[in-house]
Amino acid sequence: MKRILVAGLVAVAAMLVAAPAGAQDTSEVHVLHGIPGVTVDVYVNGEATLPAFEPETVAGPLELPAGDYQIEIFAAGADPEADTAVIDVTAPIPGGESISVIAHLDAEGNPTLGAFVNDLSEIDAGNGRVTVRHTAAAPAVDIVAGGEAVAGLDGIENGGESAAILPAGDYMTGIAAAGTTEVLVEAPITVVEGVNLVVYAIGSLDDGSFALLTQTFDGLGGEAEAEADPPEQINAGDSGLAADSGSTGVVVAVVGLGVVLALGLLAVPAAVRLSRRD
Fold it and tell me: Where are the extended beta strands (E) located within 54-179?
C-alpha cells in the first residue's frame, strides 16, 4: 500500500525548491530519470516547474511536505495547452519516509513512474546492504555469481526490488534472465560497511540502451567491531561468490548508451513556486 500511495512521485523532479519553513510531516525525497534519450518538461499544479529534465540524472534529497500534487509530464518543448501529457496524475505524497522516485520504462517499453521506500535500517558491523531495483524494459532478472543466483537478489520483476545483506568487499556479479545463469550484463559491485547501495536497471535490452544507475545511503552501520580481513566469499545459492580484491569503488556495468550519473540538486529558478493541495 505504501508504494501505491507514493505512485506518481516523479513530482519530486518538479519539486526541487525548498519546502515551506516549519512544514510538518515531511519526507526526504530523491528523484531519478531512468528513460534514456528522453528529455521532459514537468508541470506541477499547472506550473512549469522543471523544464528540460534530462535522463540518467539523480537529484535530491529534498524535504517535501505531505500533500496531494497534480503532475503532468510532457516531451521537452511541448505546448501544455495543445499537446497531451505523457503522464498526468494526481499523487498523494506521504510523510516521514525516505523515498526514491524514478521515471522509467515498464516491461513493454512504455514510460511509467516508480516509487520506492528506502531501507535506512541499521546494518550489522562489517556488512552492507545491496538493493536491486528493476526499472528497465526487460523480463524478470536474477543477480548471479559463481554460476548461481545470489540469495535474496533473484526473481526481480519490472517495478520490483530485492535486497540482501552482504559482507563488505568487491564482488563480481552479473544480471541474467530469471531462472537462468547466462550473464546478460556484467555488473561488479563494491559493498561498503554501513551503506545501502541501490542499483537501478534502466533502459531497454531490445534497443541497446540498457544501463545501470546507482544511489547510496550511508551511516547505517552498527557498532564497529575489531578490524578484520575482507571476506573471501558470500552466499550465492549453493556456491560462494568470490571477492575481487583487484577492483575498487562501485563499478557500474553498461550496455549500449552507458550511464551518466549526476549527483546533487538540479538548479531551478528561485521564482518558480510549487503549490500544494492539502
Answer: 57-65, 67-75, 87-93, 98-105, 111-117, 127-134, 141-145, 148-149, 161-167, 169-171, 174-177
Instruction: Report the predicted TM-score, pTM, of the whole model to 2 decimal places.
Output: 0.70
How high is the mean pLDDT of the chain? 74
Question: What is the helix (H) or strand (E) element at residue 186, kind and residue range?
Answer: strand 185-186
Coil vs helix vs strand at 113: strand
Given strand 141-145, what is the order of strands in its sheet? 148-149, 141-145, 174-177, 185-186
Distance CA 114, CA 2 (A): 12
Q: Cα–Cα distance between 131 and 135 in angstroms, integer?
A: 13
What are 92-134's pLDDT values in tens digits?
778 898 988 888 999 999 988 888 999 999 999 999 999 999 9
Q: Which three cell numbers mark 1? A: 500500500
Cell of 166: 552482504
Residue-wise over 115-127: b if at least 16 C-beta within 10 A, else e? bbbbeeeebeebb
Give, as one character, the DSSP assignment of residue 157: P
Alpha-carbon distance of 224 to 114, in angstroms, equals 35
Give CA 98 to chain center in angstroms: 12
For residues 91 and 68, give the distance between their C-alpha atoms in angstroms, rounded to a whole number: 5
For residue 153, what is the enclosing H or E element?
A: none
Report d(CA 14, CA 62) in Å as an integer.
11
**Cα angle, residue 184 at apex, residues 258 and 150 outer, rounded to 5°:** 110
Around Cβ 278, how many Cβ atoms within 10 Å? 6
Q: What is the grid cell recorded at 274? A: 510549487
